[in-house]
Amino acid sequence: MNHQPELYWISGSPYAWRVMLTLEVKQASYASHLLEASKGDLKKPEYLRLNPRGRVPTLKHGEHVLNESLAIMAYLDARFRRRRSSASRRTRRAQLAPDL
Ligand SMILES: N[C@@H](CCC(=O)N[C@@H](CS)C(=O)NCC(=O)O)C(=O)O
Fold first, then answer.
1. 41 CB within 6 A, ligand 1
2. What confidence tier does 17 reach under pLDDT thresholds 50, 70, 90?
3. What is the DSSP secondary-structure string of 35-81?
4. Which helix (H) or strand (E) holds 33?
5. Predicted pLDDT of residue 91
6. Fewest beta carbons within 10 Å, which of 30, 32, 65, 78?
7. Is 50:8 a contact under the CB 8 Å cutoff?
């Protein structure tokens, strides 16, 4: 799947923060949709179609729509491999093949 994940969130939500942290750890680029609860964004019909409970976070990835931060984190962990830095790749290669 080539779609970029889309994250729906509101400012100050620790549930959204932990999903954002997971995306950062995975170095996954994503589209950010900052909603405003005070403007009623969470109760608008187009958002309720993504999350009938009218809460954040919601992650949309292609045809998959996920609610509940822990479920989203588990999904991201399964779908996105963490990219290794070139330094850690060199260390790993040295451990596996010290003569190279
Ligand atoms: N169990 C949910 C909790 C989500 C939740 O409570 N989100 C709050 C923000 S921290 C929310 O959307 N509140 C808006 C509302 O209840 O209207 C999760 O882990 O994702």
1. no
2. very high
3. E-GGGTGGGSHHHHTT-TT--S-EEEETTEEEESHHHHHHHHHHH-P
4. strand 31-35
5. 74
6. 78
7. yes
Length of the chain: 100
Q: Which architecture does CATH list for 6-96?
A: 3-Layer(aba) Sandwich (3.40)
In 10 A of CB 92, how many CB atoms?
A: 11
The answer to whether 65 and 42 have CB atoms below 8 angstroms apart is no
Please work out whether the CB of residue 17 comes within 6 Å of at least one atom of ligand 1: no
Cα gap 1→7, rounded to integer Å: 17
SS3 label, residue 90: helix
Query: CB-based contacts of 32: which residues, under 8 Å, 6+ apart?
Result: 6, 7, 9
